[in-house]
Amino acid sequence: MIRAKIGGIGHYVPERVVTNFDLEKVMETTDAWVQERTGIVERRYGKKHEETTTTMGARASEIAIARAGISKEDVDFIIFATLSPDYYFPGCGVLLQRELGITHNEMGCLDIRNQCSGFVYALSIADQFVKTGTYKNVLVVGAEMHSMGLDYTTRGRNVTVIFGDGAGAVVVQPANDPSKGILTCKLHANGTHAEELAFISPGAHGGYHGQEDSYGFPDDESFGGIFLTQKMMDDALTFPQMNGQLVFKTAVQKFPEVIMEALAEQGLDKKDIDMFIPHQANLRISQFVQKLLGLSDDKVYNNIQKYGNTTAASIPIALSEAWEAGKIKSGDLVCLAAFGAGFTWGSALMRWE
Ligand code: UT7
After folding, report:
1. Which fold does the domain 4-174 belong to in CATH?
2. Residue 299 alpha carbon to ligand 1 centre in Å
3. Euclidean distance between CA atoms 323 and 123, whole angstroms
């Protein structure tokens, strides 16, 4: 059986560092509050009008492609995960193809909308394409330019202090050694609490999911509707909203569940994990899960302190940094896990080649 592996990995974070002290200047927050609740010290913001989710994804992709020992013309499928796309449509997949200058190949480009678990979902699709022999070099990218869409007033502080910009990319290829590569990916979702972590407008909901007509939707029988009203903007519906406590409580339950599910399926134990890369949502969540799994500090990689939560980019950035630091070696059992909006969550287990 062919197994798929991560054959090359890279990441890119923009230069501009924004500290908690910088945010103190524009909203009522404190460095102490942010560090104590989340572990975040600083994050990166992309350069407005120059960088986008796509351009950052391209920089990470170029590194991943070079490290995979291929040229960009060898990429035969692109999967792009983000919640902060350059455009409402088309998605970042085709924009990345153009940015990399490989439109002449006319390979398929797929966009993933699974927020914090977007990278794990994207990886699972790449895994299937490679395992079945459909494609040989699938470029999987997670990238976010959150800084363009946050509420920089006290009203939005519970969300804004958490998020940062960046990108990570991997090339998924057939493994040379059949005992190595991606062993399994486990994916889950439950839409019950869809609006508890969401960026609702602009959108085509037209008031259907509880956003009242008072938001200015036309309610007659005429054709056409409206994506965006002044009232939505005034009421901050054009910014991400989060019920932080519900997300936290559910995350600390679902992370261990989905990791144990993957381990059990593979006949492995939590003590077999050599490197755990959790989605960087909150350092307290990662520490809670680490404790439950009984993993020592050298078996977990966190970088939320430097970058905040970069959503779909957080796992590939952390994986790339851990690999660059020599913390992942051939034969290691690497575990990825994520939880986020939807709610959606997932895990991936791989034996590093
Ligand atoms: O990537 C996946 C998605 N995200 C997550 O996984 C995040 C999960 N949730 C969390 O990480 C935490 O819930 C937060 C860090 C977002 C918030 O921490 P919390 O301990 O749940 O705080 P809270 O929302 O219950 O708010 C506690 C207090 C409130 O004030 P009052 O009502 O007690 O007076 C908030 O208004 O803290 C206030 N607060 C802040 N104060 C200073 C909220 N945000 C801030 C802030 N600075 N940035």
Report:
1. Peroxisomal Thiolase; Chain A, domain 1 (3.40.47)
2. 28
3. 17
